[in-house]
Amino acid sequence: MSVQTVCLGWHWQPYAYSREATDVNGNRVLEFPDWMVRLGRKAILEATNDPLAAANYTPDTALVNYYSDDSKMGMHQDRDEQSTQPVVSISIGDTCQFRFGNTLNRNKPYEDIALASGDLFVFGGPARLAYHGVTKILPGTAPAECGLASGRINITMRVTGLDG
C-alpha cells in the first residue's frame, strides 16, 4: 500500500478501528459528516433501486486515500468491519485501474475497471468481501474542475457495526 490515508468517524489501522488516531497523532478522529451519510444513501439507492436498503444504510466511517502518480494498493478484502453493509467508493482526480476480484483469494478471476473522477462504485451482498485493489494510476487524466493538480482521492464509506 503506497497511499496516504485520513479517516472520518473511526480511525482504521490494519485489523482494528478506534476513535483516536493512536498510530498517527493520538487525536480523536473527526466526526462522520451528515452529508456523507446522505451521499452514501443516495449511492445505495442508485445501485440497488431499493428505498429500504438506502434508508437503512448509515455509514459511520470513511477512509480517504490519496494516491500519487505511482501509488498502488494490493488486492485485499475490507473485512475489519463487524457489519456486512455495502462499501461505497467515490473517485476524484486521476483515473485508476481498479481490480475487482473474487471472494476466495487474490487470484483470477478478477476484472480490471477504469474508475474516473466522479465515478461511484458500490459493492455489497455476495461481493462485499471481494478482493480488490488499485494496480495503477493514469496521470494527467483528472478533469480540471476536480480541484486536484495530480493524483487521485478515493473515499470509501463503510458501516463498522461498532458502538461508541
UniProtKB/TrEMBL annotation:
<keyword id="KW-0560">Oxidoreductase</keyword>
<feature type="domain" description="Fe2OG dioxygenase">
    <location>
        <begin position="58"/>
        <end position="161"/>
    </location>
</feature>
<keyword id="KW-0223">Dioxygenase</keyword>
<protein>
    <submittedName>
        <fullName>Alkylated DNA repair protein (DNA oxidative demethylase)</fullName>
        <ecNumber>1.14.11.33</ecNumber>
    </submittedName>
</protein>
<keyword id="KW-0408">Iron</keyword>
<dbReference type="InterPro" id="IPR004574">
    <property type="entry name" value="Alkb"/>
</dbReference>
<dbReference type="InterPro" id="IPR037151">
    <property type="entry name" value="AlkB-like_sf"/>
</dbReference>
<dbReference type="GO" id="GO:0035516">
    <property type="term" value="F:broad specificity oxidative DNA demethylase activity"/>
</dbReference>
<dbReference type="InterPro" id="IPR027450">
    <property type="entry name" value="AlkB-like"/>
</dbReference>
<keyword id="KW-0479">Metal-binding</keyword>
<dbReference type="Pfam" id="PF13532">
    <property type="entry name" value="2OG-FeII_Oxy_2"/>
</dbReference>
<dbReference type="InterPro" id="IPR005123">
    <property type="entry name" value="Oxoglu/Fe-dep_dioxygenase_dom"/>
</dbReference>
